[in-house]
Specification:
alpha+beta; about 40% helix; 5-stranded antiparallel sheet; 5-stranded mixed sheet; about 525 residues
Length: about 525
């Protein structure tokens, strides 16, 4: 009976000891430890970017245009989290494969981790503005991988050896405990590093937040102009709160730039190259205006739009100071995270348009998410060709001499905002009580302005809506209509008319390559 139990123990223990899954687990635990110590190094020494984030940025940059456009159109805001999870899943699988290679020879595992370190280092150096010192987290991570795998592999090899020869040897349990203890220590190192890194004081984000709190700008507190809004329950506010303003960018970890570190280089086809610091910028006169921004990815009736009070320094005088060549027709803008876009030079130098380097939003310094300390703002252009957050470089050039991030992926070159309108009240599919029905929403055509809004009920004739007042052609306009409708199902669609007399097209088009078109329509039930 004892022999039978021993044989059962031997047959159960041997595969578990030398199995591929065990070595894969060892690789994954060691891999996580290296990532954790790398993250801790970033946090303790205020370094940017994190190696994993840099790799994600390279995945973003190397993704084929069709893939990027599919993700933008079908996944929307979920595209970055999904990409992050997918990349980490692949990384875990690679860690597991490296662990299994280490079963054959520990040198293979070292080579595998070295390859990952090279990829991480190359990705870090590929980020805009990085220095060789930013490689320190990669080095720390690689050293952690080497030492931790060596410690775990030594004990696992001993465990395998005993299990394969004599699993009844008393050293079997000792070697197993030694292996499990080594794995536990490495896992504990990973967890502790992650926790310390997460709560490390003195990091760049806390410094940025403190800097924002102490910053004193001459930006004024916004006051919604008299008559610019209707008191319609359910309609979007005319002024969008910063926390409610839509966020679209390609960065997997938004840059953390302190104002004292920021500068903008204006170069290329200019008479005199300029480098402007944040202090230089604040010495210049601030301009302020209401501007509505909407993303080119905004579907008909979508919510990727907001209206805010922006404060900044006009770009036209800065470019005039640099002396722009008459042969130039574009500015290649580059963000701190390496994203870029091409902007028509005429839009930046037009004194009537008011393109600016924005430093404040709704009277407060920009948040990190919205481009702190400085972003570009160009009324009347979609953001993918103009609104560069964390902007650090302006190259005056020609469209024929460069390509930019989204134009490389099939989007149009110039990106003027299209006229649009939407219905916000009532909600689509709503059940309304009998009586007067209020239909309301917004319309916009930045840098052209809105003259009128019309709605059509149940396929009938177009009828005019009442417009609120608008202080500028660069902001959206609220509108409303009071309807007396019989009980039953109803459908309402809306269209706008701009100050140039153009009527919003009803032709249905998707967002690619230059923004969606079509009339927004909703259905609801009365009574």
């Amino acid at each position: 009976m004892t022999d039978q139990v021993s044989l059962e123990k031997s047959s159960a223990a041997t595969p578990a000891a030398g199995g591929r899954a065990t070595w894969a687990l060892a690789g994954i635990v060691v891999g996580l430890a290296g990532l954790a110590t790398s993250y801790l190094t970033v946090r303790l020494f205020d370094l940017e970017p994190q190696p994993v984030v840099a790799v994600l940025d390279r995945v973003r940059d190397l993704a084929p245009g069709d893939v990027a456009n599919w993700a933008r159109e079908n996944l929307g805001k979920a595209s970055k989290p999904i990409t992050t999870v997918a990349t980490l899943a692949i990384l875990f699988a690679v860690f597991g494969a490296i662990g299994r290679l280490g079963r054959r020879h520990s040198g293979f595992a070292v080579l595998g981790f070295a390859a990952l370190a090279v990829i991480g280092g190359a990705s870090v150096l590929g980020e805009n503005g990085t220095k060789t010192t930013d490689l320190l987290p990669v080095v720390v991570g690689f050293v952690t991988w080497g030492l931790a795998f060596g410690a775990v592999a030594t004990r696992l090899e001993r465990f395998d050896e005993i299990a394969a020869t004599d699993p009844l040897d008393p050293a079997y349990d000792t070697s197993r405990r030694g292996f499990l203890m080594a794995v536990g220590v490495v896992a504990g190192l990973a967890g502790l590093s992650g926790v310390i890194g997460r709560f490390a004081v003195g990091g760049r984000v806390p410094r940025l937040n403190q800097e924002r709190r102490l910053l004193r700008l001459s930006a004024t507190t916004p006051v919604v102009p008299e008559g610019a809004r209707f008191d319609v329950v359910g309609a979007q506010p005319w002024m969008t709160r910063v926390d409610d303003f839509y966020l679209i960018d390609t960065s997997f970890s938004r840059p953390v730039i302190l104002a004292e570190e920021w500068s903008l280089r204006i170069h290329g086809m200019v008479e005199k190259e300029l480098t402007i610091t944040y202090a230089d910028l604040l010495e210049r006169e601030l301009t302020e205006q209401w501007v509505t921004l909407n993303c080119v990815s905004n579907e008909v009736g979508g919510d990727l739009i907001g209206n805010a009070w922006w404060s900044g320094v006009l770009l036209a005088p800065l470019l005039a100071e640099a002396g722009v060549s008459p042969e130039a027709d574009a500015v290649l803008q580059t963000s701190s995270d390496g994203w870029n876009c091409g902007t028509p030079l005429a839009a930046l130098t037009d004194p009537e348009r008011g393109a600016m380097l924005a430093v404040a939003m709704n009277g407060e310094p920009l948040t990190r998410e919205h481009g702190y300390p400085v972003r570009t703002l160009v009324p009347g252009l979609y953001g993918y060709v103009s609104a560069t957050k964390w902007v650090v470089d302006f190259e005056v050039t020609r469209f024929s001499d460069f390509s930019a991030y989204w134009t490389d992926r099939g989007w149009s070159e110039l990106g003027p905002v299209k006229m649009a309108s939407r219905i916000e009240v009532p909600a689509n599919g709503a059940d309304l009580p009998a009586g007067t029905v209020v239909v309301a929403g917004h319309a916009w055509h930045q840098h052209t302005g809105i003259r009128g809004v019309e709605i059509a009920v149940d396929g009938g004739a177009w009828q005019p809506a009442e417009l609120a007042e608008s202080p500028t052609i660069d902001s959206w306009v609220q509108w409303k209509v009071l309807l007396e409708l019989p009980a039953g199902e109803h459908a309402v669609k809306v269209r706008a008319i701009d100050l140039a007399g153009e009527v919003q097209t009803g032709a249905v088009a998707g967002v690619l390559p230059d923004g969606s078109t079509g009339w927004h329509q909703i259905g609801f039930r009365v009574g």
